[in-house]
Amino acid sequence: MPGTYDNGTEIEVTDLNLWYGDNHALHDISIDIPKNSVTALIGPSGCGKSTFLRCLNRMNDLVKSCRIEGKVLIDNQDIYSKDVDVVDLRKRVGMVFQKPNPFPMSIHDNIAYGPRIHGMGKKNINGIVEEALKSGALWGEVSDRLGSSALDLSGGQQQRLCIARTLAVRPEVILFDEPCSALDPISTGKIEELILELKKKYTIVIVTHNMQQAARISDYTGFFLTGDLVEFDRTEQIFESPGEKATEDYITGRFG
Amino acid sequence: MLSNAKLNEKIAFGLLRLAMGMVVAFVLVILYYIVSNGYSAISLDFIFSMPRNRMTEGGIYPAIVGTMYLIIGSMAVALPLGILSAIYLTEYAQPGRTTWTIEMAINNLAGTPSVVFGLFGLAMFVKYLGFGASILSASLTLALLILPVIIRASQEALLTVPKEYREASLALGVTKWETIRRIVLPAAIPGMVTGAILSIGRVAGETAPILLTGAAYFLPRLPDSVYSQFMALPYHLYVLATSGTNIAQTRPIQYGTALILLIIVLFVNIIAVSIRSHYRKKINR
After folding, report:
1. Spatial separation of the C-alpha atoms in residues B131 and B114, rounded to whole Å
2. Among partner residues B170, B172, B182, which is closest to A165 by beta-carbon distance?
């Protein structure tokens, strides 16, 4: 464990266990995720990294057979306690998915959807849309065609639209679930640049298959294997002198 | 020499084409038969006047109006009820014994003969609830008849909406109901309209249920309220063809009536299809 952080801790997970039916998918995960930084979660397919990510905005609630034990504190509030409003939690903890998933609406409506429902900026919805698209590094490419369908955008543009859509509801934390796995290298580069920019204002947790990506953009890295968090440390530490044999084997490409 | 695989493919294609050809041929023969025999009977007078001289002359206006009322009445009841039930079943109901029982009941309802619905309508709406033989009773009965079709089509339409849309909306902190209302339903409307289209033909064509719940043998005036009896095209056709005063003489009127019935169904379907393609465009563009 890397100890205390300069920016403070955003998410504190203690002894998190998760079952899908009889399948014990996460074992005693404890991890402190720092504020205003990028934390990458790596590991081979099926290691539980995406499952863990989905615990942080309670998307696993949608899976009926899913059972969770343990504590997840975000901003010192236990998100699994009874008095937590899941809807409000998901507003604070946004998520960007593996496959770009814009709604079948115009670019403008995609961004305005969340703020409108949350009753934000009734008078200045156009301002919110513009601000979100600028923060999502998409404004320059779409400012002249906000009314056209989001589905006409390229994959990389769609993903930045999804990021902008998340930003529009003003979250504190943004979870990225392999956001570049469906994108070409140039689009991936743009998203990585954007993530580095976003960490100034948001806490970012990113699940990735791509170790170079984790090395390029993250400050801290956690390595998952078969439902265990094997190691979690500063990214340089993990990639230069990992403490565990399994971590070293994985990052040097011996399996995975 | 053709290889075996290629020969098999040719045979399979041939059979598929033959099956398709037979279906098209049947439809064309029926259409030709009805149009060629019926078109001479059709005139403005035929469409817009009352039957005269013990239904051997005059028009079929009250039957056209009656059928339109039935379509509107049964749709007004069955569409909202069916769509809401489908939303409940696909989005909210927990899989289990109760849900399974409901699904089975819907499947069985879809296979129930329409005359049974007619008898139920007679007992329930006409007698017990006291609506009498009326547009109201017949519309409610037809609504029950098409409910399974509408529920099934709506459920399938809801299930085809990609999971990614729901997740994207929920992850923005939007409630499940708002997600359904603003994202899932608009994307499911084309499929739901398909269910409605199938039902319209059914409502326009059913005879047994309305015979028992409010269709009149002969009624030379328009219904003045939902409690009135009414004439309807399929029953009028049945009456003319089996128990009219002069069956042979009214032959052209019978074909004309059948043709009008087809045209109405076609017309309503065109409206429904254009609604569907409007929504499809909105989604895919």
Report:
1. 20
2. B172
B178 contact residues in A (CB cutoff 8 A): 117
Smallest CA–CA distance, residue B169 to chain A, in Å, is: 8
Cβ density class A5-30: b for 16+ within 10 Å, e for less: beeebbbbbeebebeeeeeebbeebe
Beta-carbon count within 10 A of A146 CB: 19
B164 interface with A at CB cutoff 8 Å: yes
Cα–chain center distance at A118: 21
Residue A57 and residue B165: Cβ atoms within 8 Å? no
Confidence of residue B284 (pLDDT cuts 50, 70, 90): low
Cβ contact, residue pair B167, A166, below 8 Å:
no
What is the model's pTM? 0.82
Average pLDDT of span B48-62 = 77
Q: Minimal Cα–Cα distance from A24 to chain B, Å?
A: 23
What is the per-residue pLDDT for B159? 93
Residues B86, A172: Cα–Cα separation, whole Å: 37
Contact B254, B241 (CB under 8 A): yes
Query: Is the minimum CB–CB distance between B53 and chain A shorter than 8 Å?
Result: no
* pLDDT number for residue A63: 86
Min Cα separation B279/chain A (Å): 11
- Looking at beta carbons, which residues of chain A come within 8 Å of B162? 101
A185-204 average pLDDT score: 93
Size of interface A-B (CB pairs under 8 A): 67
Q: How many CB atoms lie within 10 A of CB A121?
A: 16
- Indicate whether B245 pLDDT > 70: no
Tens-digit pLDDT profile for residues B90-126 = 999 888 899 999 999 999 998 999 999 999 999 999 9
A55-104 tens-digit pLDDT: 999 999 888 889 999 999 998 899 999 899 999 999 999 999 999 999 99
Q: What mean pLDDT comes out for the span A189-216?
A: 93
Say yes or no for a CB contact (<8 Å) between B173 and A92.
yes
**CB spacing of B182 vs A165 below 8 angstroms:** no
Q: Say if the Cβ atoms of A104 and B162 lie within 8 Å.
A: no
Q: Which of A81-85, A162-166, A236-240, B277-281 is most confident? A: A162-166
Rounded to whole angstroms, how far apart are CA atoms A170 and A149?
A: 23
What would the DSSP string read from start to end of A71-131?
EEEETTEETTSTT--HHHHHHHEEEE-SS----SSBHHHHHHHHHHHTT--SS-HHHHHHH
Cβ distance of A97 and B168 shorter than 8 Å: yes
Domains and CATH numbers, chain A: 9-251 (3.40.50.300)
Looking from the CA of B100 toward its CB, the CA atoms found within 13 Å total 3
Query: Any CB–CB contact under 8 A between B172 and chain A?
Result: yes
